[in-house]
Design goal:
The structure is a single chain. By secondary structure, this protein is α/β, with parallel strands linked by helices. The chain is 35% helix and 21% strand. A 6-stranded mixed sheet has the order 6-7-8-3-9-10, with helices on both faces. Helix 4 (112-125) crosses helix 5 (141-153). The longest helix is centred in the last third of the chain and has 19 residues, at 239-257. It is globular. It binds adenosine-5'-diphosphate (ADP) and magnesium ion. Magnesium ion (MG) binds next to helix 1.
């Protein structure tokens, strides 16, 4: 989070209530995120993390409050953030490059050849050179998530919202995808918000972790991560990191038991 004037993302007194519920799941929430930073949002399942993303990307409209991206309210805007849901949602009947080129198709203005060229470049960038003409089912889980990430990058937005993107992957693939994502972040200098319920994943990726301590969500507690950037996995063994991990797990478990 930051104290500067223009934030990558700012919530100001934001509330949201699902029509079928009788309470605000997000209740007068304010927070801001500095441009170029990487934060994970952690919280127990069902606490409202994805709801925060759905309001940010305009899928849900807040009941109260203002959401700003790059200093401008999001209402009525398009293409101001890239969003990657938990499931990769690649269309199975489209070749990989046509899935990746989707944001360009939506935006319009480019020929098919130009879209293909941009998609193949984006695929190469995520380590999937030569995969453009494959069908999604021909890729492994990790490759599909990288293709979905390439598609998110092609929105051209500076703010990326990644909702549990690696949770369906096996453990070892998840570890290499985390390292890969940190490399992508350093290379492209985007602002990344990443939802996870995996505390270790949050500590490895974040500059500071935004913790949902209770539902309804009134605040996101900003917990700095005591490890340098760039980082490698060995930092997770530092006593300060081990201690913080235990503290966060205890905090989240209290809510599961509550
Ligand atoms: N479409 C919906 N209609 C009604 N309630 C919903 C809907 N989506 C989610 N909820 C409720 O809001 C809560 C938060 O959902 P969500 O933001 O998806 O949680 P999280 O991402 O933290 O797991 C859930 O516990 C669920 O009961
Ligand atoms: Mg969710």
């Amino acid at each position: 989070m930051d104290t500067g004037t223009v934030s990558a993302l700012e919530f100001e007194g934001v509330s949201y209530q699902y029509p079928v519920e009788d309470f605000d799941i997000v209740d007068d929430l304010s927070f801001r995120v500095a441009p170029g930073s990487f934060h994970c949002i952690v919280g127990v399942s069902g606490c409202g993390k994805s709801t925060i993303f759905r309001m940010t990307n305009g899928l849900l409209k807040p009941k109260r409050g203002i959401i700003q991206v790059g200093g401008q309210p999001v209402e009525g805007r398009k293409g101001y953030c890239g969003y990657m849901p938990q499931k990769d949602l690649l269309f199975p009947w489209r070749p990989v490059w046509e899935n990746v080129a989707l944001p360009l198709e939506v935006k319009g203005g480019l020929s098919k050849a130009q879209r293909r060229e941009a998609a193949l470049a984006a695929l190469e960038d995520v380590g999937l050179a030569g995969c453009g003409d494959k069908m999604p089912h021909e890729l492994s889980g990790g490759m599909r998530q990288r293709a979905a990430f390439a598609r998110t990058m092609l929105t051209g937005s500076d703010l990326l919202l990644l909702d549990e993107p690696f949770s369906a992957l096996d453990f070892l693939t998840r570890l290499s995808m985390q390292e890969w994502l940190l490399d992508q972040w350093q290379k492209h200098k985007k602002t990344i918000l990443f939802i996870t319920h995996d505390v270790e994943e949050a500590l490895f990726l974040s500059q500071s972790v935004l913790v949902v301590e209770s539902t309804p969500i009134h605040v996101l507690s900003d917990v700095p991560v005591p490890a340098p950037v760039p980082r490698d996995r060995s930092c997770l063994k530092d006593p300060a990191m081990v201690e913080l991990k235990e503290r966060l797990i205890t905090l989240l478990r209290k809510q599961v038991e509550a």
